[in-house]
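Researcher: Quick test of sequence recovery. Tokens follow.
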């Protein structure tokens, strides 16, 4: 046992020494953010009513059509970006980020520290790169710029999830990427509520593919997503597909974005969807 421990320690020390030869960079960041807002009527919303979907239907005798006030600081955030490491031509980076968005039920409760993102990146000079860990869902990376937290809901995909993504940069600004995705904080809906059991029962990860083209201040991207679920153990398989097109123009402080998404279900990306079980 001692021999194994000594050998493992030696390997770690050699690896640390190899990486230490390069100039490393740890960039710590974070902020304290308070939200105060007034709603003139109730809406279908997420945690502490910060993630807004759509207003509830208006009715003359509906008691929810009254003004309400909210104040919270659960979006305060802390994180660190790691860069500058290189080993035999392989560039290594990482990110870990947390906030306090977890805990409240409705508009009450105690906010607790929550893992937001935690991933590692590996890159080579030939344009090939790997990203593995917990990060923003690839379908949600082209999100609109917003002041609040709803990221364009209920029309824009949103979520953070464990995945492994491969990307290859090609000539003339072209690039292709593919990812195998799992579920954790943003699971699919189903007969037992939102749960990652449905993708676990299927045994097949969610699959993503995209083709991008950038030149000058312009970026275009088209992609597709495939998800296979089994709502019941040993039951029938439910296959879902999604596709999107995205365009962006950016110059200085000006940015224009356009995106169109089609999704079957899409509940794992916080879209307003679902399926029927008979």
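Model:
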């Amino acid at each position: 046992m001692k021999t194994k421990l000594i050998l493992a320690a030696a390997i770690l020390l050699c690896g640390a020494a190899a990486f230490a030869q390069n100039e490393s960079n740890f960039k710590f960041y974070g902020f304290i953010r308070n939200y105060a807002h007034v709603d003139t009527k109730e809406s279908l919303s997420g945690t502490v009513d910060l993630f807004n979907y759509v207003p509830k239907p208006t009715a003359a005798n509906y008691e929810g059509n009254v003004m309400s006030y909210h104040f919270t600081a659960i979006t305060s955030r802390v994180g660190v970006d790691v860069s500058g490491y290189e080993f035999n031509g392989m560039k290594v980076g990482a990110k870990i980020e947390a906030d306090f968005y977890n805990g409240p039920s409705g508009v009450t409760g105690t906010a607790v520290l929550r893992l937001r993102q935690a991933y590692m990146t590996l890159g080579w000079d030939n344009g090939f790169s790997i990203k593995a860990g917990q990060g923003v869902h690839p379908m949600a990376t082209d999100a609109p710029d917003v002041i609040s937290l709803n990221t364009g809901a209920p029309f824009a995909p949103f979520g953070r999830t464990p995945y492994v993504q491969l990307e290859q940069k090609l000539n003339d600004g072209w690039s292709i990427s593919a990812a195998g995705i799992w579920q954790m904080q943003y699971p699919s809906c189903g007969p037992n509520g939102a749960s990652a059991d449905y993708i676990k029962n299927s045994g097949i990860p969610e699959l993503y593919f995209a083709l991008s083209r950038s030149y000058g201040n312009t970026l275009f991207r088209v992609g597709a997503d495939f998800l296979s679920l089994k709502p019941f153990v040993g039951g029938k398989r439910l296959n879902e597909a999604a596709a999107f097109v995205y365009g962006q123009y950016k110059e200085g402080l000006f940015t224009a974005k356009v995106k169109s998404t089609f999704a079957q279900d899409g509940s794992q990306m916080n879209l307003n969807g679902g399926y029927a079980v008979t």
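DSSP finds two helices and 15 strands in the chain.
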